[in-house]
Amino acid sequence: MLDTLRKFARKKSPWIMHLPCGGCNGCDIEVVAALTPKYDAERFGVLQRGTPRHADILMVTGIVTAQVKDRLKRIYDLTPDPKYVFAFGSCAIDGDIFNEGYAFKGPLDQVIPVDIYVPGCPPRPEALIDGLVKLLNKIDLKQSIE
Ligand code: SF4
Predict the structure, then answer these.
(1) Which residues contact 107 (CB under 8 A, 6 or more apart)?
(2) Protein residue whose Cα sits closest to atom 2 of ligand 1
(3) Which of 20, 57, 120, 145 shows the smallest number of beta carbons within 10 Å?
């Protein structure tokens, strides 16, 4: 019973930690826009958290740099299971225009496992919501396998 309640809460109220790793911050602005009343990502129960210990989803924007690589792994390890990683924007996926830079240590999925990819430079808030809905469906699938 408690397990069912937990699954229901996770599905209906995904708590997200936003991790801006680098890049130009354009993606971060779109993440913030998705939370405004115009796009209203909160209608899916989304709540932004400032600590990985309270997060279900890590939303990564920007490139993985030498500076953040180890921190990113540590934050991933600190996030309780089951956890999901959302790569938002082309920088998080493959480094985009920065992938030949000396500081690039990605792509993200070679550092931590990624569950959903939303490409774009930057993706629009609608794409974020679309990715979120796909991820929530994936959470259901994963949970039914458990
Ligand atoms: S994907 Fe584009 S908008 Fe997003 S951080 Fe990279 S360069 Fe900026």
Answers:
(1) 64, 92, 93, 94, 95, 99
(2) 121
(3) 145
pLDDT tens readout for residues 36-93: 999 988 888 888 889 999 999 999 999 999 999 999 999 999 999 889 999 999 999 9
Whole-number pLDDT of residue 110:
94
Whether the CA torsion 122, 76, 10, 117 is positive or negative: it is: positive
**Domain ranges, ordered by start, for the chain:** 6-136
Task: Tell me if 106 CB under 6 Å of ligand 1.
Answer: no
Measured distance CA(116)–CA(26) in Å, rounded: 19
Domain 6-136 has CATH 3.40.50.2000: no
Q: 51: CA distance to ligand 1 center in Å?
A: 23
In testing the pocket of ligand 1, which one of 65, 90, 94 has its CB within 8 Å of the most ligand atoms?
A: 90
* Ligand 1 pocket residue status of 27, Cβ below 6 Å: yes
